[in-house]
Amino acid sequence: MEKENIYILGIESSCDDTSAAILCNDRILSNVVADQKIHAEYGGVVPELASRAHQQNIVPVVHQAIEKAGIKKEELSAIAFTRGPGLMGSLLVGTSFAKSLAYGLDIPLIDINHMQAHILAHFIDEKDHNKPPFPFLAMTISGGHTQIVKVTSHFEMEVLGETIDDAVGEAYDKSGKVLGLGYPAGPEIDRRAQLGNPKAYQFTKPKVDGLNFSFSGLKTNILYFVQREVKANPNFIKENINDICASIQYTIIGILIAKLKLAVKQTGISHIAIGGGVSANSGIRKALKDAEGKFGWTSYIPKFEYTTDNAAMIAIVGYLKYLEKDFSDFDVMATARLKL
Predict the structure, then answer these.
(1) Across all residues in the chain, what is the average pLDDT?
(2) 139 located within any domain
(3) In terms of domains, do 153 and 168 share one?
(4) CB-based contacts of 4: which residues, under 8 Å, 6+ apart?
(5) What 8-state DSSP symbol labels residue 78?
(6) Does residue 228 carry a pLDDT above 90?
(7) Cis link prior to 135 (omega < 30° from 0)?
């Protein structure tokens, strides 16, 4: 006897991407993302503009996700949505929409922690992608977060280390701003880093105890270095941009891998899964693959579309919670600083 199909609608609106996805059990039927180009003009996400754009995008994005999945909204088993962490205005749009639709369809509502979703995106059923075995270490790296998490089961997670100031994605973006690159700067630094010498310039590696991270000192070091060199040679950035980007990337990857090595040593766990927007970085992916041979790790790297904020990762956690009948009350509130 075949098991009954469970259809989950996932809704993600934590920052500046409005996304909706449909999963049939743990398989993706659709994953639609509407990004907001307007923030590039300001060099970062403007919360008020983000929440307005979500209001405009959410209905067409959800409609498109249902249409692409080839199902009717009446077939949905539950609606999963991002409760937090994120920008409050953005979260409220997704939360309100999810509540209204679930109430109207008389189906369960499931609130999701955005950080948990980045980790559990690895459990989407994908061809040629192995799911990490428990326990494993997850490193979540994005514009707003840098964490190392011990994952014992789908819903048993312990944060072993996190940033005490800025996230790794912010270090990329602020460095890019100093160099006159667009926003977000991470992909452009990554592209240029592949053309440059990673050891051309040395930058400070912050000394932080244990498994915590710090990137504010590195950002300041890069700023002062560029200002000093430009004073001596006004064409310094233009003439050396690839080497500067390669050196910044080399430093950041060195910090991340050093902390992972320490986490493996402390826990004895050598299965490493990465997630979050910065996990799309080619240098980080290569460093992890190199570490497999060097240190005997097994690494799990998500598909590019599951690295940035997307609703497929929300829907997979919704599916796993649905199996546990872990549903939310309709008075559940969005929480900007929701802890893992």
Answers:
(1) 93
(2) yes
(3) yes
(4) none
(5) E
(6) yes
(7) yes
